[in-house]
Specification:
Layout: E1 9-12, H1 20-25, E2 33-38, E3 55-59, H2 67-80, E4 87-92, H3 94-109, E5 118-119, E6 129-133, E7 149-150, E8 155-156, E9 159-160, E10 168-171, H4 181-199, H5 206-223, H6 231-249, H7 256-267, H8 271-279, H9 287-299, H10 314-325, H11 328-335, H12 339-342, H13 345-353
Parallel strand pairs: 1-10, 2-3, 2-4, 4-6, 5-9, 6-10
Antiparallel strand pairs: 7-8
Helix pairs in contact: 2-3, 4-5, 4-6, 4-8, 5-6, 7-8, 7-10, 10-13
Bound molecules: nicotinamide-adenine-dinucleotide (NAD) and zinc ion.
């Protein structure tokens, strides 16, 4: 049975980021604070009151995190010759939040990031860490994983561990105001998709279901409304993302995420847009949700890209197939243990062709 852990503490509300200096006071003694901040904020004022000795590493989120990126950040910390930081603060979307989690674990556990891709391989608690999401939807702020791609092996898998969970969150909806509208929609849809996948799955859990149901309700309110990015809706979306992240710990995803992972590994498509591209081909598996997804995208004036697989040959389709059906846990959650009889090469190719 699952022995579930959640985030230690959180502060929620507009302007909550101003609480950060206070939270860090107790952590400063004989040490320094290390910040991972999304590169979008490089020349923008986040009002975080950096102190002498603090270190800021900007995270280039043009591509999603690779295990080598995490190792490189670890090396940069060691090159400072200041020891391990007393706290790590990550400010950004899922990619930056995951980077902070992974480096925190790596600094105390040693070795390389790839050594911890899997379940419960992290042996020691990482550096104390605070997460500050600036775009809502992945649930990375609440989940027990940090997704990284190992470009040598092609493995896209996180450090699934209780030690990966943030000790403290600052959930400040004013930070998501500047997110481009498309990105806001794609990332927000990640919550919806996680939750519909888990609610349609075979492995159910009453607490996971409750988190998922409430998260979906909030996403619906936001994406069926006139202005998905109003102050009130950005607040709702931040709550939905947090609840969706809590749900992941108690559930499995389904058909969408494995296909999206295939797109990511083979074509480099980012996670959240990849999910939306996949949703366009999911009528057969999630008919009601497929229609609702189209409705919400239309309402918000979002054009999900189409035709991204149109010029591919069978060699590429084979790669797509391999990197999709490898995800046996979510696929058997959705389709049963003999999912490979349903998803044979021909069928998987057909589904990708609809994208
Ligand atoms: P992201 O971190 O990839 O960022 C997307 C873009 O938004 C970037 O260009 C970034 O610069 C920009 N951005 C972020 N905040 C902004 C702001 N306030 N204003 C303007 N621009 C801003 O976004 P994401 O969709 O949140 O995260 C995707 C990542 O999360 C992927 O790497 C995926 O693998 C990971 N993920 C992790 C989990 C988990 O549980 N750990 C779950 C799902 C996805
Ligand atoms: Zn996701």
């Amino acid at each position: 049975m699952n022995n579930s852990k959640n985030v230690g503490n959180y502060i929620f509300g507009k302007g909550a980021i101003k609480e950060l200096p206070k939270l860090l006071e107790a952590k400063r003694e004989n040490g320094y604070i290390l910040y991972f901040i999304d590169h979008y904020f490089q020349n923008r004022d986040l009002e975080i009151e950096l102190k002498d000795g603090d270190e800021v590493f900007y995270v280039d989120t043009t591509d999603e995190p690779k295990t080598e990126d995490i190792d490189r950040f670890r090396d940069r910390v060691l090159e400072l010759q200041k020891g391990i930081p007393n706290a790590i603060v990550s400010i950004g979307g899922g990619a930056t939040l995951d980077t902070g989690k992974a480096v925190s674990n790596l600094l105390t556990n040693g070795g390389k990031a790839e050594d911890y891709q899997g379940w419960d391989l992290v042996k020691l608690a990482g550096v104390y860490k605070i997460g500050v999401p600036t775009v809502s939807g992945t649930g990375a702020e609440a989940s027990r994983t940090c997704v990284m791609t190992n470009s040598k092996s092609g493995l896209k898998l996180g450090m699934n561990s209780d030690f990966t969970i943030y000790d403290q969150l600052i959930l400040d909806p004013s930070l998501t105001k500047s997110v481009p509208k498309e990105q806001y929609f794609y990332t927000g849809m990640d919550t919806y998709i996680h939750c519909i996948e888990s609610l349609n799955g075979r492995y159910r859990n009453a607490i996971g279901d409750a988190y998922s149901q409430q998260a979906i309700e909030l996403v619906r309110e936001v994406f069926h409304s006139e202005d998905m990015m109003s102050d009130e809706n950005r607040e709702k979306m931040m709550v939905a993302s947090y609840l969706g992240g809590c749900a992941i710990a108690n559930s499995f995803v389904g058909v969408v995420h494995p296909f999206s992972a295939g797109l990511s590994v083979v074509l480099g498509t980012h996670h959240c847009i990849g999910n939306c591209i996949t949703m366009n081909a999911m009528e057969e598996f999630y008919p009601k949700e497929y229609l609702e997804f189209l409705e919400m995208a239309e309402k918000q004036g979002i054009e999900v890209p189409k035709g991204i697989t149109k010029d591919l040959d069978d060699e590429v389709y084979q790669k797509l197939y391999n990197s999709t059906v490898i995800h046996s846990k979510p696929l058997s959650n959705a389709l049963g243990d003999d999912f490979e009889q349903i998803l044979d090469f021909k069928k998987v190719k057909e589904i990708f062709q609809k994208m």
